[in-house]
Amino acid sequence: MKSDSVTVDLRLSGKPDGKVKAFADVTIPLGDDGTITVLGFSVLDGDGRPARVMAPARKGKQAWFDTVQLTGRIRQFVETAVLDQYQRKAKGAE
Question: Which CATH class is domain 3-85?
Fold first, then answer.
Protein backbone atom coordinates (compact mmCIF):
# COMPACT_ATOMS: atom_id res chain seq x y z
CA MET A 1 0.00 0.00 0.00
CA LYS A 2 1.13 3.53 -0.72
CA SER A 3 0.22 6.59 1.31
CA ASP A 4 -1.37 8.25 -1.72
CA SER A 5 -3.91 5.41 -1.98
CA VAL A 6 -5.58 6.57 1.28
CA THR A 7 -8.39 9.02 0.46
CA VAL A 8 -9.63 11.72 2.80
CA ASP A 9 -12.93 13.59 2.91
CA LEU A 10 -12.09 16.60 5.09
CA ARG A 11 -14.42 19.33 6.38
CA LEU A 12 -13.13 22.46 8.08
CA SER A 13 -14.72 23.23 11.44
CA GLY A 14 -17.26 26.02 11.67
CA LYS A 15 -15.59 27.22 14.89
CA PRO A 16 -12.31 28.89 13.91
CA ASP A 17 -11.49 29.77 17.53
CA GLY A 18 -11.70 26.16 18.77
CA LYS A 19 -8.87 23.62 18.97
CA VAL A 20 -10.58 21.25 16.54
CA LYS A 21 -9.97 22.75 13.11
CA ALA A 22 -11.30 19.97 10.87
CA PHE A 23 -13.06 16.62 10.71
CA ALA A 24 -12.08 13.81 8.35
CA ASP A 25 -13.37 10.50 7.06
CA VAL A 26 -10.65 8.20 5.73
CA THR A 27 -11.01 5.42 3.17
CA ILE A 28 -8.36 2.71 3.07
CA PRO A 29 -8.31 0.40 0.03
CA LEU A 30 -7.99 -3.36 0.62
CA GLY A 31 -7.47 -4.37 -3.00
CA ASP A 32 -9.94 -6.88 -4.38
CA ASP A 33 -11.44 -7.32 -0.89
CA GLY A 34 -12.98 -3.82 -0.85
CA THR A 35 -12.33 -0.78 1.34
CA ILE A 36 -12.59 0.35 4.94
CA THR A 37 -13.92 3.83 5.67
CA VAL A 38 -13.26 5.19 9.15
CA LEU A 39 -15.45 8.14 10.09
CA GLY A 40 -14.69 10.84 12.62
CA PHE A 41 -11.00 11.74 12.69
CA SER A 42 -10.28 15.23 14.08
CA VAL A 43 -7.48 17.68 13.31
CA LEU A 44 -6.34 19.67 16.33
CA ASP A 45 -4.28 22.79 15.74
CA GLY A 46 -3.37 25.42 18.30
CA ASP A 47 -1.71 25.99 21.66
CA GLY A 48 1.59 26.59 19.84
CA ARG A 49 1.82 22.88 18.93
CA PRO A 50 1.95 21.45 15.41
CA ALA A 51 -1.31 20.22 13.89
CA ARG A 52 -2.11 16.63 14.85
CA VAL A 53 -4.64 13.97 13.98
CA MET A 54 -6.85 12.40 16.63
CA ALA A 55 -8.56 9.07 16.04
CA PRO A 56 -12.34 8.77 16.40
CA ALA A 57 -13.30 8.58 20.07
CA ARG A 58 -16.33 8.38 22.30
CA LYS A 59 -16.87 10.02 25.65
CA GLY A 60 -17.02 7.84 28.73
CA LYS A 61 -17.97 8.90 32.24
CA GLN A 62 -14.53 10.29 33.05
CA ALA A 63 -12.48 10.20 29.84
CA TRP A 64 -12.51 9.84 26.06
CA PHE A 65 -11.85 6.41 24.54
CA ASP A 66 -10.59 5.65 21.03
CA THR A 67 -13.05 3.70 18.92
CA VAL A 68 -10.36 2.92 16.32
CA GLN A 69 -6.67 2.30 16.86
CA LEU A 70 -4.23 2.35 13.99
CA THR A 71 -0.66 1.12 14.40
CA GLY A 72 2.42 0.87 12.25
CA ARG A 73 2.70 2.24 8.73
CA ILE A 74 -1.05 2.53 8.21
CA ARG A 75 -1.19 5.08 11.05
CA GLN A 76 1.53 7.15 9.36
CA PHE A 77 -0.25 6.90 5.99
CA VAL A 78 -3.56 8.08 7.48
CA GLU A 79 -2.06 10.91 9.55
CA THR A 80 0.00 12.16 6.59
CA ALA A 81 -2.99 12.04 4.23
CA VAL A 82 -5.27 13.87 6.69
CA LEU A 83 -2.70 16.57 7.54
CA ASP A 84 -1.84 17.13 3.85
CA GLN A 85 -5.52 17.59 3.02
CA TYR A 86 -5.95 19.90 6.04
CA GLN A 87 -3.01 22.07 4.94
CA ARG A 88 -4.45 22.38 1.40
CA LYS A 89 -7.95 23.30 2.62
CA ALA A 90 -6.71 25.65 5.36
CA LYS A 91 -4.60 27.59 2.83
CA GLY A 92 -7.58 27.82 0.49
CA ALA A 93 -9.79 29.17 3.28
CA GLU A 94 -7.48 32.10 4.03
Answer: alpha beta
Residue 2 reports pLDDT greater than 90: no
C-alpha 38/C-alpha 31 separation (Å) is 17
In the three-class reduction of DSSP (H, G, I as helix; E, B as strand; rest coil), residue 55 is classed as coil
**pLDDT band at residue 3, thresholds of 50, 70 and 90?**
low
Point out which residues pair with 69 in neighbouring strands.
none
In degrees and rounded to multiples of 5, residue 88 shows phi and psi of -65, -45
Total residues belonging to the chain: 94
- Tens of pLDDT, residue by residue over 37-90, are 999 999 999 878 899 999 999 998 888 898 999 999 999 999 999 999 999 998
**8 A C-beta contact, residue 20 and residue 43:** yes
